[in-house]
Structures are given as C-alpha cells and as structure tokens.
C-alpha cells in the first residue's frame, strides 16, 4: 500500500468520508482482543494526553486498532485522521494537527524542502525486495511497452509523493528527465479518472489503486523496486510532540503499539485485508493484493535509510522538483530504542 503519497496543495486535506474516531476501550472488541493486554507500564502523567495518528490512504490501522485492542489499556487516548496521501499528512504533523503518521519516501523530502517542523522517527522497512507497493501502469491497449516509450507521453502522478519519486527515477533509469515526458500532477482520485478516460498515457501510483487497475486490465511497465525505487515507508512526528519530554516518551509507546498492531496483522493477513477493504471501500480481493504487496517490519531509521533518502532528495533537487537542497540528517530523530525490530514483538 504504499501507505505512500501526496499532492501538495498547501493545506491539510482529510478525506471527507473519513471520521476522526477515538480508539478507546469502548471501541474495541473487549478482553478477547489479541493485543489488549499489551502493556506500556503505569504512567499517570500520560492520562491527560491525546494522540492523533495519521492514517495514510486507509492502511487499515484504525480498524486494526479496534480488532486487536492494542490501545485498550493505554494511559492516553488515541484518535485517527485519514489522509488521501502523504504530503498533507506531513504538513499536519508539522502543524501539530496529528502526532504520528506513515508516508512514503518522498513526502519527508518535500516537507523538509518546505522547512516544515517535523522529523522522521521510524521506518516501515520492506521485508521483500521482490514485491512492489507501487507501479507505473499503462492501459491494456497502450502502445507503450517500456519506460523508454514514455518519451513525450503524459504521466499522472500525485505531486510530492513516493509515486512521483518512482516516476522521476524510472525516467532517469532510461536516460529521460521530467522534461522528456509530461508529468501531470493529480491526486489519486483525479489520477484514476484521467487514467480511465484516456487523458493520460500512464499513471504512477501505489496499491490498492494499482492493483484495482491491473485487475481491470492495466499493464505494469515499471515496479517500485530496487534499483529504481526503495521499498520503505517512514513514520513522521511533529516537533510539538518530540520536544515535550512527556509527550515524546508517550509517543514512543504509541509507535510501539502501532508496531505490534502491524506485526499481528501480517501474521493474520485475512484480518488485515478485511481492515483495508473496510477503510478503503475496495474489494476484499484487491485489499488482499495490497496486503501481499508490502510485507514490512518497523525499525529505527538506520544510516542506509538516510543515505537512500539523501540520494532521492538530491535527484529531486537536480530535477528542479524542490525549491532547496535537503540535508536528510537534519530530518531524523529516532524515538524507538536501539535494535528495535517489530518482527520480534509478541
């Protein structure tokens, strides 16, 4: 899924169809919920805190929190705010409207270039370099057979998103620049309309949108895989929570519980797919394809991540896609303990 994404429109956009719902004990199944006893210790100083988690494109996190009961015994309240894609989520983190959220590899770069006040605090580390969470696709009857054939073509991309990065790097891999093709900046919903009505020649987009289009006959001409693309997503948090010692400590507990949620979800893929389908409205089959496309674990930000993000940032800068160069070392602030690996959580 790539939880990946963002069209930069200067204001925070929360999907109108999504609700901001507190994830409290009244919302979950009860004592049978599998993670309801996952503890974070007794912290009475956290009792007055509320954290809002940004749900990027319907990644299943809100529904999974209810199913697992992961926040049942948390000494704070949790809400969810759903976003269509990543850049508005980064902006919301910077403004303090949310406290934590996951995005693809590009929104932290474009957000840093806008000098927003946020940090990358953790990684959804792709566990399988053969599975792509996003692709560049063309209609089934398109004459485009390879990336080189995109010269002079219109490519729909959500601006500032990981799919934007995929398009940029994919063109570069065959000696093309954004000037050799026309990047048409469209939100995921508008991109789907343009693709389905033939107003663009290709679409760089993540799952479930890619999976839905492929099921309808679209062809993949480039996958978001190394060496063209990386397979990580990133957790971002706002300076408001990171600079307050009490909120920062509690936020570490929030992210640890989120990690436990997704570890359980990947061990129960049918439940995971049902959660994604419920949040996005896609079919269960398409939700299963989304879940299968991106196995991951949650870890700290590692030096190799900073190196990959810096290279991607430099590519955006060289292409004139961001206004200033970004030093990615200034954008990271690990809050998880050293050696943290969600795949080892019970």
Biggest sheet overview: 7 strands, mixed
Distance between the termini: 24 Å
The strands making up the biggest β-sheet line up spatially as 1-3-2-4-11-5-12
**Secondary-structure content class:** alpha/beta
Second-tier CATH architecture of the largest domain: 3-Layer(aba) Sandwich
Write the element-wise H/E pattern from the N-terminal end onward. EEHEHEHEEEHEHEHEEHHHHEH
Protein name: Aliphatic sulfonate ABC transporter substrate-binding protein
Main location: periplasm
Family: Belongs to the bacterial solute-binding protein SsuA/TauA family.
Pfam families: NMT1
Describe it for me?
The protein has 346 residues and is an alpha/beta fold. Helices cover 34% and strands 18% of the residues. It is built from eleven helices and twelve strands. The strands form two sheets. Strands 1-3-2-4-11-5-12 form a seven-stranded mixed β-sheet. Helix 1 (61-68) crosses helix 8 (245-267) and helix 1 (61-68) packs across helix 9. Residues 50-265 form the Solute-binding protein family 3/N-terminal domain. InterPro entries: ABC_SsuA_sub-bd, Solute-binding_3/MltF_N, SsuA/THI5. Residues 1-22 form the signal peptide. Its main location: periplasm.
């Amino acid at each position: 899924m790539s939880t990946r994404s963002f069209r930069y429109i200067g204001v925070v956009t929360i999907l109108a169809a999504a609700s901001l719902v507190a994830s409290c004990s009244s919302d979950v199944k009860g004592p049978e919920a599998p993670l309801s006893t996952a503890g974070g210790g007794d912290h009475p100083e956290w009792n007055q805190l509320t954290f809002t988690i940004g749900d990027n494109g319907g990644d299943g996190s809100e529904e999974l929190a209810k199913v697992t009961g992961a926040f049942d015994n948390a000494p704070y309240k949790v809400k969810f705010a759903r976003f269509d894609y990543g850049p508005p989520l980064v902006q919301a983190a910077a403004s303090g409207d949310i406290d934590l959220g996951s995005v693809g590899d590009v929104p932290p770069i474009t957000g840093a270039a806008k000098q927003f006040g946020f940090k990358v605090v953790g990684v959804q580390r792709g566990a399988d370099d053969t599975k792509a969470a996003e692709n560049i696709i063309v209609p089934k009857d398109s004459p485009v057979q390879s990336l080189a054939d995109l010269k002079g073509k219109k490519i729909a991309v959500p601006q500032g998103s990981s799919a934007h990065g995929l398009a940029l790097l994919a063109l570069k891999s065959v000696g093309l620049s954004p000037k050799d093709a026309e990047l048409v900046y469209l939100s995921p919903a508008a991109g789907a309309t343009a693709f389905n009505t033939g107003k663009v020649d290709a679409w760089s987009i993540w799952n479930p949108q890619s999976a839905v289009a492929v099921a309808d006959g679209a062809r993949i001409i480039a996958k978001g895989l190394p060496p063209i693309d990386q397979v990580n997503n990133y957790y971002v948090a706002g300076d408001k929570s990171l600079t307050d010692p009490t909120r920062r400590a509690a936020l570490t507990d929030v992210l640890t519980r989120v990690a436990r949620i997704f570890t359980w979800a990947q061990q129960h893929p049918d439940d995971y797919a049902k959660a994604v389908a419920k949040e996005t409205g896609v079919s269960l089959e398409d939700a299963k394809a989304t879940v299968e496309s991106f196995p991951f674990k949650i870890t700290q930000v590692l030096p190799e991540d900073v190196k990959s993000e810096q290279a991607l940032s430099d590519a955006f800068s060289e292409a004139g896609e961001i206004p200033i160069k970004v030093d990615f070392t200034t954008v990271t602030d690990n809050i998880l303990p050293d050696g943290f690996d969600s795949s080892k959580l019970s």
